[in-house]
Structures are given as structure tokens and as C-alpha cells.
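Renewal narrative, Specific Aim 1. Our central claim is that a sequence can be written position by position from structural information alone. The example that follows is taken directly from our test logs and has not been curated for this report. It begins with the C-alpha cells describing the chain, in the order in which they were read.
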């Protein structure tokens, strides 16, 4: 598959994922807040909505204040979100 901006050969190693990516909650919240601060638009709104539904963050699509982290995901939630055989998407 051609890779944008390079003529190099690029390989992707298949790996498991979490859906939603609870294992990256902190980084996603930090990046979403930075993106909103710069562009006044919420990036990753789908994931943010899922995190809010789980009670992990305080967030609504129309808000203008930074996202508030309410709690970390539990081990049970992390385990339930893990998709070890997820196809590359």
C-alpha cells in the first residue's frame, strides 16, 4: 500500500487494541484539550463520548471548558475493552 509523503516501504505489525481505547484515556484527554484550545473543535469526539458515557470524564460536544477527568477505568473495564484479535483498521 502506498504511504503518504514517503516512497519508503512501511510495515505494520498486527496488535491488539482496546475499544474504546481506555488504555490511552489520559493521553486522549490531554490531546483533546490541546486540540480544542488551538482550534475550538473537539478531536476524537467519538471516543470522548464513549468515555463520558462510562463516567470517566465530564464532557459534552458543545462545551468550551477543558475536559474534566472523573476517574480512571477499572481493571474490569480495561479487560472488557480489550480486543486481542481485532483486525487492522
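The sequence written for that structure reads:
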Amino acid at each position: 500500500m502506498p504511504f503518504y509523503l514517503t516512497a519508503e516501504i512501511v510495515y505494520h505489525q498486527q496488535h491488539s487494541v482496546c475499544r474504546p481505547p481506555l488504555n490511552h484515556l489520559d493521553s486522549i484527554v490531554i490531546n483533546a484539550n490541546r486540540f480544542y484550545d488551538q482550534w475550538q473543535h473537539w478531536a476524537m469526539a467519538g471516543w470522548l463520548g464513549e468515555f463520558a458515557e462510562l463516567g470517566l470524564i465530564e464532557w459534552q460536544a458543545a462545551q468550551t471548558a477543558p475536559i474534566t477527568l472523573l476517574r480512571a477505568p477499572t481493571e474490569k473495564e480495561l479487560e472488557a475493552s480489550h480486543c486481542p484479535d481485532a483486525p487492522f483498521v
